[in-house]
Design goal:
It is a single chain. The protein is an alpha+beta fold. The protein folds into 3 domains: 29 residues, no CATH class; 136 residues, no CATH class; 158 residues, Rieske [2Fe-2S] iron-sulphur domain (Rieske Iron-sulfur Protein). It is built from 7 helices and 12 strands. The strands form 4 sheets. Strands 3-4-5-6 form a 4-stranded antiparallel β-sheet. It has a 4-stranded antiparallel β-sheet with strand order 7-8-9-10, with no helix packed on it. Strands 1-2 form a two-stranded antiparallel sheet. Helix 2 packs antiparallel against helix 3 and helix 2 packs parallel to helix 5. It is elongated and about 90 Å long. Keywords: 2Fe-2S, Cell membrane, Disulfide bond, Electron transport, Iron, Iron-sulfur, Membrane, Metal-binding, Oxidoreductase, Respiratory chain, Transmembrane, Transmembrane helix, Transport. It is found in: Cell membrane. Belongs to the Rieske iron-sulfur protein family. It comes from Pseudokineococcus marinus.
């Protein structure tokens, strides 16, 4: 294989009339002399590298096991302290499991696997039968040269670490929330349940909600639930007050608000992100994840973005003490469309 270099005349090839016809050729210098690694020439260094790889695979397995143990050992009780301990423990375990299996693979490749420089000329994608047979033989030879067959401890450690690495993900699958069905059909909202501030759970007086204000709301009885985090994921609400004249009230929703105070599900109907941005001037609610936009003046109809369904409205009224209360549960399913019930 030869390379071509044009004469150095200080001009571009386009300026040289004979540049394309009078190339200057030079000899291919080839590959530099191969430098053997210490593990290639010293059996003790090879054994040391083997032990290092095995230790990293062991640490990966320990990290995966620690993740599973921490998941059950540090349950959430609703406080930020337990949430912090749980997150840190899970993060350390999962990070160690992934990090050390990666470093073991890199160290194995750099110290024990063959690193002789090779090149192969490009050829048609499908070769002859003889070439295909040779390619299969090369693959077998590569596996033999990798040394894994001669190093059963590393092979066993690699298999063990790889087998344990997916287990944290399997454990996390059970934490995706309630199973479909009746668990998603209803929330904690019911007739007479007071609207309360998130996260203090203090009930909200209608007189405290001024025009232009917005409140993040939960049911007052949320923390009485044994699975209040799951329930909050379904029942979270945004409360806003606007001039009643700006809303085009539908006949079937007359009486669902309190003098311009409206309550809508906070869970985006696209994939369930929290809708947390309210534009006071335009009366738009925005989802920060995928920019779905809902118009409060049209009962939170979708006016932009991937969401296909309006935010469900929570019917509200005022009790004898002046506190805002729910008239009922949502009359349509909150959350992403795949939560819909028949």
């Amino acid at each position: 294989m030869s390379d071509i270099q044009l004469p150095n005349s200080g001009k571009s090839p386009a300026d040289e009339p004979d540049a394309g016809r009078t190339p200057v050729r030079f000899r291919n210098p080839g590959l530099p002399a191969h430098r053997h690694r210490q593990a290639d020439v010293d059996p003790r260094a090879a054994k040391r590298a083997e032990r290092q790889v095995l230790a990293m695979l062991g640490l990966s397995a320990v990290g995966s096991i620690f993740f599973i143990v921490a998941y059950f050992a540090f349950p959430l009780d609703g406080t930020f302290a337990t949430l912090q301990v749980s997150n840190i423990s899970l993060g350390l375990g999962l990070g160690a499991g992934i990090f050390f299996i990666g470093t073991a693979a890199v160290h194995l490749a750099k110290t024990l696997m063959p690193d002789t420089e090779m090149f192969d000329e490009r050829h048609p994608q499908r070769g002859t039968e003889a070439e295909r047979t040779d390619a299969a033989a090369i693959m077998v030879q590569g596996g033999q040269e990798s040394g894994l067959g001669r190093r059963p401890f590393i092979l066993g450690g690699l298999v063990g670490a790889a087998a344990l690495a997916p287990l944290p993900a399997v454990v996390l699958l059970r934490d995706l929330g309630p199973a479909p069905g009746d668990a998603l059909a209803h929330t904690l909202w019911d007739e007479g349940v007071r609207l309360a501030l998130d996260p203090s759970a203090e009930p909200i007086l209608a007189s405290d909600v001024t025009i232009g204000s917005v409140f993040h709301v939960i049911p007052e009885n949320l923390y009485e639930s044994d699975h209040f985090l799951d329930e909050k994921a379904k029942a979270a609400v945004l409360l806003m007050r606007v001039d009643p004249d700006v809303v085009d009230v539908r006949e079937d929703r007359a009486g669902w608000d309190v003098d311009g105070i409206y309550a809508y599900s906070k869970i985006c109907t696209h994939v369930g992100c929290p809708v947390a941005l309210y534009e006071q001037q335009t009366h738009h609610l925005l989802c920060p994840c995928h920019q779905s936009t809902f118009d409060l003046t049209q009962h939170c109809k979708v006016i932009f973005g991937p969401a296909k369904r309006a935010l469900p409205q929570l019917p509200i009224s005022v009790d004898d003490e002046g506190y805002l209360v729910a008239q009922s549960d949502f009359l349509e399913p909150p959350g992403p469309s795949y939560w819909e019930r028949g």
